Amino acid sequence: MWLKNLSSATSTPLVLPSIAACGSGGPAAIGQTSAAPSAGPTATAVVRTDYSVAANWLAVPTTIDKPVDVFYLSPTEYKRATPSDPIVGPIDDPGMVAGDRVASTREVTAFAPVANIYAPYYRQADAASRAALPQAQQDAIVAGAPTQDGIAAFDYYITHDNGGRPFFLAGHSLGSNVLANLLASYMPSHPDVYRRMIAAYVVGYSITPDYLAANPHLRFATGPSDTGVIVSWNTEAPTIGGPNPVLLPNGLAINPITWTREETEAPASLNLGSIALNADGTAVVDGQGNAAPVLGLADAQVNLARGVVIASTPSVARYSPSGGGPSLSGIYHSYDIPFYYFDLRANAADRAAHFAATK
Q1: pLDDT (tens digit, 9 = 90+) per residue, 166-209?
Q2: What CA–CA distance (Å, rounded) separates 62 from 40?
Q3: Phi-psi category of 40—alpha, beta or left, where left has phi over 0 and alpha has psi -120 to 50?
Q4: Cα–Cα distance for residue pair 154/122, rounded to 1 Å
Q5: CA-CA distances (angstroms) from residue 229 to 111, 170, 197, 219, 324?
Q6: CA separation for the pair 357, 104 (Å, rounded)
Q7: How confident is the model at residue 11 (pLDDT cuts 50, 70, 90)?
Q8: Integer distance in angstroms from the first to the last C-alpha of the chain?
Q9: 211 with 180: CB under 8 angstroms?
């Protein structure tokens, strides 16, 4: 049961949001670096949000009825209304709160049969504004309030709510950027917590060999059942209109159908199910609030040179971001999880079972 409802029953066909609305104005815009994320010189000056306040949580279970948890961070949903608004929005920004609720219905609900869901709000930075700044300033912004809130919320969850259960981390876009920072900075000093991590689904954000080299306690997944690992991918069509603004060079990707790193194509017939989205971006659900699988929509093939997963079967015209122009054609950032929603659900169950069997 939920403290807050994550479902929607609207059934209008989807009009895609722009990539910038997903916290993905580009690698600079989301503070990506090819090395380890840094706390940044301004991070110590940030006053962290108080996560003992119930209003600062998007979702907290009222009943613990599963043996594992998931801690989820949404993509960027904060947008400056005027140039005079702050780049980093307040924790209770109405647009961000509404957007986080929408994003959660198509992302973290994949874990609902497997894990108790914990999802905080965290202060987010406007993507377009970040994109206009030099790289160092962008990194400092993400390492400031967004990352400090993410760490504060996670530490509160671990201290007060987790109860020693194994857990997943899950995020998308900026949420995954923040999780990468958390993995780099929090886990080395909390090895007992890290040992309980089943996997970190850091989706819609590039994990690079340089990042892993700078953080030797972290490993990228190599198969469907390994645990204590990072699982990540970014999705594109075979041909895209311009550079993908959410990628870093040499990014790693895993196939979200086979959960391997090989470049062998997994046909859409093997996909356990995508989900349909409403015009407002929420998942289409039935009368019981459950999403139904859309079969045969998306195949998946790792492209090691591009550092992405190629989906060749979806319609580029239908699933490219709206409002982004030809340069964003074929960039399926908003569909990183919806294309492979039921595969993600099954994989989380598989990794949880293997984690339990080894403990």
Answers
A1: 999 999 999 999 999 999 999 999 999 999 999 999 999 999 99
A2: 36
A3: left
A4: 11
A5: 17, 12, 8, 5, 33
A6: 29
A7: very low
A8: 28
A9: yes
Instruction: Fill in the DSSP letter of residue 161.
Output: I
Side-chain-side CA neighbours of residue 92 (13 Å)? 6
Strand, coil or helix: 291: strand
Mean pLDDT of the chain: 88
3-class secondary structure per residue, 305-345: CCCEEECCCCCHHHHCCCCCCHHHCCECHHHCCHHHHHHHH
DSSP class per residue in 177-208 = HHHHHHHHHTGGG-HHHHTTEEEEEEETS---
Residue with tokens 């996909």: 271
Using CB atoms within 10 Å of the CB of residue 267, give its burial: 0 to 12 exposed, 13 to 18 middle, 19+ buried. Answer: middle
User: How many C-beta atoms surround the C-beta of residue 76 within 10 A?
Assistant: 30
DSSP H stretches of helix in 200-315: 209-214
Extract the tokens encoding 63. 């009943």
Joined tokens for residue 144: 């400031």
> pLDDT digits over 240-293, tens only?
999 888 888 999 999 999 999 999 999 999 999 999 999 999 999 999 899 989
Query: Is the pLDDT confidence value at 10 over 90?
Result: no
Distance CA 215, CA 219 (A): 9
pLDDT, average across residues 299-321 = 96
260 Cα distance to chain centroid:
19
| Residue 339: both structure tokens together | 């294309």
**Tokens 């409802």, residue?**
5
pLDDT on residue 234: 98
13 pLDDT more than 80: no
pLDDT at 6: 54
Which among 128, 138, 139, 132 is positioned nearest to 38, based on CA atoms?
139
